[in-house]
Protein backbone atom coordinates (compact mmCIF):
# COMPACT_ATOMS: atom_id res chain seq x y z
CA UNK A 1 0.00 0.00 0.00
CA UNK A 2 1.28 3.41 -0.86
CA UNK A 3 2.58 5.40 2.07
CA UNK A 4 2.75 9.12 2.00
CA UNK A 5 6.01 10.71 2.90
CA UNK A 6 5.76 12.26 6.31
CA UNK A 7 3.93 15.54 5.85
CA UNK A 8 5.60 18.71 6.91
CA UNK A 9 4.06 20.40 9.89
CA UNK A 10 4.38 23.71 8.16
CA UNK A 11 5.31 24.78 4.72
CA UNK A 12 5.55 27.75 2.46
CA UNK A 13 3.90 27.86 -0.91
CA UNK A 14 6.21 29.77 -3.23
CA UNK A 15 4.56 32.63 -5.03
CA UNK A 16 7.14 32.55 -7.78
CA UNK A 17 9.84 30.21 -8.92
CA UNK A 18 13.24 31.71 -8.29
CA UNK A 19 14.86 29.44 -10.86
CA UNK A 20 13.03 30.93 -13.79
CA UNK A 21 14.62 33.67 -15.84
CA UNK A 22 12.54 36.81 -16.04
CA UNK A 23 10.19 37.47 -18.97
CA UNK A 24 10.22 33.87 -20.17
CA UNK A 25 7.54 31.20 -20.08
CA UNK A 26 8.12 28.72 -17.26
CA UNK A 27 9.26 25.33 -18.44
CA UNK A 28 7.57 22.22 -17.08
CA UNK A 29 9.00 18.75 -17.23
CA UNK A 30 6.19 16.19 -17.64
CA UNK A 31 6.29 12.44 -17.22
CA UNK A 32 3.15 11.09 -18.91
CA UNK A 33 3.26 7.47 -20.08
CA UNK A 34 -0.22 7.46 -21.64
CA UNK A 35 0.07 7.90 -25.39
CA UNK A 36 -3.43 9.34 -25.72
CA UNK A 37 -3.13 11.81 -22.91
CA UNK A 38 0.44 13.00 -23.54
CA UNK A 39 -0.11 15.21 -26.61
CA UNK A 40 -3.28 16.69 -25.18
CA UNK A 41 -1.72 17.44 -21.84
CA UNK A 42 1.17 19.12 -23.65
CA UNK A 43 -1.31 21.13 -25.70
CA UNK A 44 -3.15 22.22 -22.56
CA UNK A 45 0.00 23.21 -20.72
CA UNK A 46 1.23 25.20 -23.69
CA UNK A 47 -2.13 26.93 -23.91
CA UNK A 48 -1.74 27.85 -20.26
CA UNK A 49 1.53 29.55 -21.11
CA UNK A 50 4.15 26.93 -20.29
CA UNK A 51 6.98 25.47 -22.26
CA UNK A 52 6.75 21.72 -21.98
CA UNK A 53 9.33 18.95 -22.01
CA UNK A 54 7.57 15.60 -22.31
CA UNK A 55 8.95 12.23 -21.25
CA UNK A 56 7.40 8.82 -21.83
CA UNK A 57 8.79 7.01 -18.82
CA UNK A 58 11.48 7.16 -16.18
CA UNK A 59 14.31 6.11 -18.49
CA UNK A 60 13.22 8.56 -21.17
CA UNK A 61 12.97 11.31 -18.57
CA UNK A 62 16.48 10.80 -17.30
CA UNK A 63 17.87 10.55 -20.81
CA UNK A 64 16.18 13.79 -21.84
CA UNK A 65 17.59 15.60 -18.85
CA UNK A 66 21.08 14.26 -19.47
CA UNK A 67 20.95 15.16 -23.15
CA UNK A 68 19.14 18.44 -22.85
CA UNK A 69 20.76 19.96 -19.82
CA UNK A 70 17.88 22.40 -19.66
CA UNK A 71 16.34 24.10 -16.70
CA UNK A 72 12.73 23.68 -15.73
CA UNK A 73 10.51 25.22 -13.12
CA UNK A 74 8.26 22.31 -12.20
CA UNK A 75 7.99 18.55 -12.56
CA UNK A 76 4.57 17.07 -13.30
CA UNK A 77 4.11 13.33 -12.97
CA UNK A 78 1.20 11.01 -13.67
CA UNK A 79 1.01 8.26 -11.04
CA UNK A 80 0.14 5.77 -13.76
CA UNK A 81 0.07 2.47 -11.94
CA UNK A 82 2.82 3.21 -9.42
CA UNK A 83 2.55 3.95 -5.75
CA UNK A 84 2.80 7.57 -4.65
CA UNK A 85 6.14 6.76 -3.01
CA UNK A 86 7.50 5.25 -6.20
CA UNK A 87 6.48 8.10 -8.42
CA UNK A 88 7.83 10.68 -5.99
CA UNK A 89 11.12 8.80 -5.89
CA UNK A 90 11.22 8.99 -9.69
CA UNK A 91 10.48 12.69 -9.53
CA UNK A 92 13.29 13.21 -7.04
CA UNK A 93 15.64 11.31 -9.29
CA UNK A 94 14.65 13.57 -12.17
CA UNK A 95 15.08 16.64 -10.02
CA UNK A 96 18.44 15.53 -8.69
CA UNK A 97 19.66 14.93 -12.22
CA UNK A 98 19.63 18.63 -12.86
CA UNK A 99 21.59 20.62 -10.34
CA UNK A 100 20.22 23.97 -11.42
CA UNK A 101 16.64 23.11 -10.53
CA UNK A 102 17.08 21.18 -7.34
CA UNK A 103 14.20 23.06 -5.73
CA UNK A 104 11.75 22.75 -8.60
CA UNK A 105 8.29 21.88 -7.24
CA UNK A 106 6.94 18.45 -8.07
CA UNK A 107 3.29 17.58 -8.62
CA UNK A 108 1.98 14.02 -8.78
CA UNK A 109 -1.42 13.51 -10.37
CA UNK A 110 -2.87 10.69 -8.25
CA UNK A 111 -5.00 8.12 -10.01
CA UNK A 112 -6.51 6.06 -7.20
CA UNK A 113 -8.50 7.82 -4.53
CA UNK A 114 -11.91 8.15 -3.02
CA UNK A 115 -14.35 10.99 -3.18
CA UNK A 116 -13.10 12.27 0.18
CA UNK A 117 -9.82 13.26 -1.47
CA UNK A 118 -11.25 14.66 -4.68
CA UNK A 119 -10.38 18.28 -5.21
CA UNK A 120 -7.52 18.26 -2.69
CA UNK A 121 -3.90 19.18 -3.18
CA UNK A 122 -1.72 17.71 -0.44
CA UNK A 123 1.85 18.62 0.28
CA UNK A 124 3.82 15.48 1.07
CA UNK A 125 7.36 16.82 1.21
CA UNK A 126 9.41 19.90 0.56
CA UNK A 127 8.12 21.25 -2.74
CA UNK A 128 6.30 17.97 -3.36
CA UNK A 129 2.56 17.82 -3.86
CA UNK A 130 -0.06 15.21 -4.69
CA UNK A 131 -3.11 16.47 -6.48
CA UNK A 132 -6.34 14.53 -6.41
CA UNK A 133 -8.01 16.02 -9.42
CA UNK A 134 -11.67 16.76 -9.36
CA UNK A 135 -11.60 18.88 -12.47
CA UNK A 136 -9.20 20.26 -15.02
CA UNK A 137 -9.15 23.75 -13.53
CA UNK A 138 -7.69 22.36 -10.32
CA UNK A 139 -4.48 21.40 -12.11
CA UNK A 140 -4.25 24.78 -13.80
CA UNK A 141 -4.74 26.60 -10.51
CA UNK A 142 -2.13 24.51 -8.73
CA UNK A 143 0.38 25.07 -11.52
CA UNK A 144 -0.32 28.78 -11.43
CA UNK A 145 0.36 28.78 -7.70
CA UNK A 146 3.59 26.80 -7.80
CA UNK A 147 4.91 27.93 -11.16
CA UNK A 148 3.29 31.19 -12.20
CA UNK A 149 3.31 32.13 -15.85
CA UNK B 1 -36.34 19.23 -11.50
CA UNK B 2 -33.42 20.08 -9.22
CA UNK B 3 -31.79 23.45 -8.72
CA UNK B 4 -33.25 25.00 -11.84
CA UNK B 5 -31.73 28.36 -10.96
CA UNK B 6 -28.24 26.94 -11.35
CA UNK B 7 -28.18 26.58 -15.10
CA UNK B 8 -27.31 29.57 -17.21
CA UNK B 9 -29.98 30.93 -19.50
CA UNK B 10 -29.35 30.47 -23.18
CA UNK B 11 -27.09 27.52 -22.59
CA UNK B 12 -26.60 25.35 -25.66
CA UNK B 13 -25.18 21.88 -25.07
CA UNK B 14 -23.76 19.54 -27.67
CA UNK B 15 -24.18 15.90 -26.61
CA UNK B 16 -21.81 13.45 -28.29
CA UNK B 17 -22.82 9.87 -27.61
CA UNK B 18 -23.44 6.91 -29.89
CA UNK B 19 -26.00 5.47 -27.50
CA UNK B 20 -29.52 6.54 -28.39
CA UNK B 21 -30.85 6.09 -24.85
CA UNK B 22 -28.12 8.29 -23.43
CA UNK B 23 -28.73 11.01 -25.99
CA UNK B 24 -32.46 10.99 -25.41
CA UNK B 25 -32.16 10.90 -21.65
CA UNK B 26 -29.80 13.88 -21.61
CA UNK B 27 -32.00 15.79 -24.02
CA UNK B 28 -35.06 15.19 -21.81
CA UNK B 29 -33.18 16.24 -18.68
CA UNK B 30 -31.77 19.44 -20.11
CA UNK B 31 -34.99 20.34 -21.91
CA UNK B 32 -36.66 20.31 -18.50
CA UNK B 33 -34.20 23.00 -17.50
CA UNK B 34 -34.97 25.02 -20.57
CA UNK B 35 -31.55 24.25 -22.00
CA UNK B 36 -31.14 23.65 -25.70
CA UNK B 37 -29.41 20.42 -26.66
CA UNK B 38 -28.02 19.22 -29.95
CA UNK B 39 -27.06 15.59 -30.28
CA UNK B 40 -24.32 13.95 -32.31
CA UNK B 41 -23.61 10.26 -32.56
CA UNK B 42 -19.91 10.50 -33.38
CA UNK B 43 -16.97 12.90 -33.61
CA UNK B 44 -17.37 13.76 -37.28
CA UNK B 45 -21.03 14.60 -36.77
CA UNK B 46 -20.19 16.70 -33.72
CA UNK B 47 -17.71 18.72 -35.77
CA UNK B 48 -20.29 19.46 -38.42
CA UNK B 49 -22.69 20.63 -35.74
CA UNK B 50 -20.06 22.75 -33.99
CA UNK B 51 -19.31 24.51 -37.26
CA UNK B 52 -22.99 25.36 -37.70
CA UNK B 53 -24.10 25.98 -34.13
CA UNK B 54 -21.45 26.98 -31.66
CA UNK B 55 -22.32 25.25 -28.39
CA UNK B 56 -21.53 26.62 -24.93
CA UNK B 57 -20.69 23.17 -23.64
CA UNK B 58 -19.86 19.72 -24.96
CA UNK B 59 -20.85 16.59 -23.08
CA UNK B 60 -19.13 13.63 -24.67
CA UNK B 61 -18.62 9.91 -24.27
CA UNK B 62 -15.08 8.57 -24.26
CA UNK B 63 -16.24 5.51 -26.17
CA UNK B 64 -17.24 6.71 -29.63
CA UNK B 65 -17.56 4.89 -32.93
CA UNK B 66 -15.11 6.96 -34.96
CA UNK B 67 -12.49 7.62 -32.34
CA UNK B 68 -12.50 8.20 -28.62
CA UNK B 69 -12.98 11.01 -26.18
CA UNK B 70 -9.37 12.07 -26.61
CA UNK B 71 -9.97 12.57 -30.31
CA UNK B 72 -13.11 14.49 -29.46
CA UNK B 73 -11.41 16.84 -27.00
CA UNK B 74 -8.56 17.34 -29.47
CA UNK B 75 -11.10 18.49 -32.07
CA UNK B 76 -12.82 20.72 -29.56
CA UNK B 77 -9.48 22.34 -28.69
CA UNK B 78 -8.72 22.89 -32.36
CA UNK B 79 -12.15 24.44 -32.78
CA UNK B 80 -11.48 26.72 -29.81
CA UNK B 81 -8.19 27.81 -31.32
CA UNK B 82 -9.67 28.32 -34.76
CA UNK B 83 -12.59 30.45 -33.61
CA UNK B 84 -10.95 31.94 -30.51
CA UNK B 85 -13.73 30.73 -28.25
CA UNK B 86 -13.88 28.65 -25.10
CA UNK B 87 -16.04 25.55 -25.16
CA UNK B 88 -15.76 23.55 -21.95
CA UNK B 89 -16.23 19.81 -22.26
CA UNK B 90 -17.47 17.21 -19.80
CA UNK B 91 -16.70 13.52 -20.21
CA UNK B 92 -19.82 11.51 -19.38
CA UNK B 93 -18.71 7.99 -19.91
CA UNK B 94 -18.78 4.29 -19.24
CA UNK B 95 -15.04 4.51 -18.59
CA UNK B 96 -15.29 4.90 -14.87
CA UNK B 97 -11.82 4.08 -13.53
CA UNK B 98 -9.88 6.75 -11.70
CA UNK B 99 -7.14 6.53 -14.30
CA UNK B 100 -9.77 7.26 -16.96
CA UNK B 101 -10.80 10.30 -14.98
CA UNK B 102 -7.25 11.59 -14.64
CA UNK B 103 -6.61 10.95 -18.31
CA UNK B 104 -9.74 12.81 -19.32
CA UNK B 105 -8.96 15.79 -17.07
CA UNK B 106 -5.33 15.95 -18.16
CA UNK B 107 -6.46 15.78 -21.78
CA UNK B 108 -8.63 18.83 -21.37
CA UNK B 109 -12.07 17.76 -20.22
CA UNK B 110 -13.20 20.07 -17.45
CA UNK B 111 -14.96 17.28 -15.61
CA UNK B 112 -15.32 13.53 -15.73
CA UNK B 113 -18.58 11.83 -14.76
CA UNK B 114 -19.12 8.12 -15.03
CA UNK B 115 -22.30 6.36 -16.08
CA UNK B 116 -24.73 5.74 -14.57
CA UNK B 117 -24.75 9.31 -13.39
CA UNK B 118 -26.56 11.12 -10.63
CA UNK B 119 -28.89 13.76 -12.00
CA UNK B 120 -28.04 16.31 -9.32
CA UNK B 121 -24.32 15.82 -9.86
CA UNK B 122 -24.71 16.25 -13.60
CA UNK B 123 -26.68 19.46 -13.23
CA UNK B 124 -24.28 20.81 -10.61
CA UNK B 125 -21.34 19.95 -12.85
CA UNK B 126 -22.86 21.64 -15.87
CA UNK B 127 -23.59 24.69 -13.74
CA UNK B 128 -20.04 24.81 -12.38
CA UNK B 129 -18.19 24.46 -15.69
CA UNK B 130 -20.32 27.08 -17.36
CA UNK B 131 -19.51 29.55 -14.60
CA UNK B 132 -16.28 30.82 -13.15
CA UNK B 133 -14.03 28.23 -11.52
CA UNK B 134 -13.93 28.20 -7.72
CA UNK B 135 -10.78 28.98 -5.79
CA UNK B 136 -8.48 26.16 -4.80
CA UNK B 137 -6.47 25.34 -1.73
CA UNK B 138 -3.57 23.18 -0.62
CA UNK B 139 -3.71 21.21 2.60
CA UNK B 140 -1.13 19.22 4.52
Which key phrases capture this entry?
heterodimer; A: alpha/beta; 4 helices; 31% helix; 19% strand; B: alpha/beta; Rossmann fold; 5-stranded parallel beta sheet; two-stranded antiparallel sheet; 5 helices
In short:
Chain A has about 150 residues and is α/β, with parallel strands linked by helices.
Characterise this structure.
The complex is a heterodimer of chains A (149) and B (140). With 149 residues, chain A is an alpha/beta fold. Chain A has one domain (27-146): Rossmann fold, CATH 3.40.50. Chain A is built from 4 helices and 6 strands. A 6-stranded mixed sheet of chain A has the order 2-1-3-4-6-5, with helices on both faces. In chain A, β5 (121-125) and β6 form a beta hairpin. Chain A is globular, with a radius of gyration of 14 Å. The longest helix of chain B has 15 residues, at 69-83. Classes of the chains: A alpha/beta (149), B alpha/beta (140). The interface between A and B is medium-sized, with 41 and 26 residues. β5 of chain A pairs parallel with β8 (138-139) of chain B, so a sheet runs across the interface.
Outline the biggest β-sheet of chain A: 6 strands, mixed
Helix and strand run of chain B = EHEHEEEHEHEHE
What characteristic shape of chain A results from the CA principal axes? globular
Q: How many individual helices of chain A? A: 4
CATH superfamily (homologous) name of chain A: Response regulator
**SS-derived structural category of chain A:** alpha/beta
Give the assembly state of these chains: heterodimer
Radius of gyration of chain B: 14 Å
Q: What is the fold-level CATH name, i.e. the topology of chain B?
A: Rossmann fold
In CATH, the architecture of chain A is 3-Layer(aba) Sandwich
Strand content range of chain B: 15-25%
Question: H/E element string of chain A?
Answer: EHEHEHEEEH
Strand order of the biggest β-sheet of chain B? 2-1-3-6-7
CATH homologous superfamily assignment of chain B: Response regulator
* Mean pLDDT value of chain B: 89
Distance between the termini of chain A: 36 Å
Secondary structure: helix percent of chain B:
40-55%
CATH class of chain A: Alpha Beta
Largest interface (CB within 8 Å) is between: A-B, 41 and 26 residues
> Would you tell me the structural class of the helices and strands of chain B?
alpha/beta
